[in-house]
Amino acid sequence: MYDLCQECLDAFRAETVTAHCDWCKGEAIVRPTRDTDEGLSGPIYYVCTPCYDKQQAVIRAEFDDYDYYDDYDEPDDYDCDHANYDADILTGEAWCWRCQHKWIMTHEEITREIEHQAEYMAEFECDEATNG
Fold this sequence. Notes:
Strand order of the largest sheet: 1-2-3
Largest sheet: 3 strands, antiparallel
Strand content: 15-25%
Helix content: 25-40%
Low-confidence stretches: none
Shape: elongated
Radius of gyration: 21 Å
């Protein structure tokens, strides 16, 4: 992770790196990417533009074939109260598991979520202490 000012970030992004593509082994300008099957803990690969474009095409095709709402009504067909949501307290982003709506949490919502997680962890630690 880089902590750069906007000017340095623009300069960093403008740099081109020529190296061997990790996937086709050809010499080209490469960019970092991950294999989606390996997840975020997988290695970072440096790949050329054609290999990257092939990867993105496969991802798009898989996404287009997958319809989350096959067994459900469209999100606009029901009123969701976003009661079942997951929250990232570091970024402040929340997303509803039911309707897939995403939003940025308010300061009060983040504070409530931190308190909720602390209470949950306290219960978990009490259970561990009693169950030894």
